[in-house]
Amino acid sequence: MTKISLKKQILDSNDAVAATNRKLFDAHHIVAFNVMASPGAGKTSVILSLASRLKPTHKVGVVEGDIASRIDTEKVIAAGYPAFQINTGGNCHLDAVMVQKALSALPLDDIHILFVENVGNLICPANFNLGTHKNIVIASVPEGSDKPYKYPGMFMKADIVILNKTDLMKAFDFDLAYFTHGIKILNDKAPIVLTSCKSKRGIRELANLVIAKYRKNFANHNFEF
Ligand code: MG
Q: What does pTM read for this prediction?
């Protein structure tokens, strides 16, 4: 078998499981977000800030993907949300089968909004469909303003782009216009939300985007959203 057809076969079988995950989300009236970023961009902090803004009406659940450790899952559970840890053991991304396993361990009837925090990496996670509805891509100020130019694939697939740690913008001499231009030439649909988990800047705007997506998917559902 050639390398290309093996890769296609892996992606095809991943897509089949992703479709099953999507059906499960829809059956349980869950909107699921695939949260992607490089290590240290603030994925867990953004998820926790958002979750605290969304509660108590919008119940949040979290799947944590990491190479190793339960550090982030313990943080999420300590904050009062159901969470499941996936350790990929070296794989640089989550796949649909890993997420399927996590879903069987989560209280799906008690979750409206699920954040799947992917492994910290700006390359591989964008290639694997998990069955989630939307992609959130987080960049952070200390990483520099050139990330959209260097990692276009990830930003092209974003439905929401977050620039986090904006409280550090001055200290890092961050070129916001250059960053924003880099996103716009790749993807003119995704809103760019400037956030800071310290000052809570942008968290309300982000919560509104998440809720709007929920309403769009489940317009006929009876929740008071
Ligand atoms: Mg994390």
A: 0.94
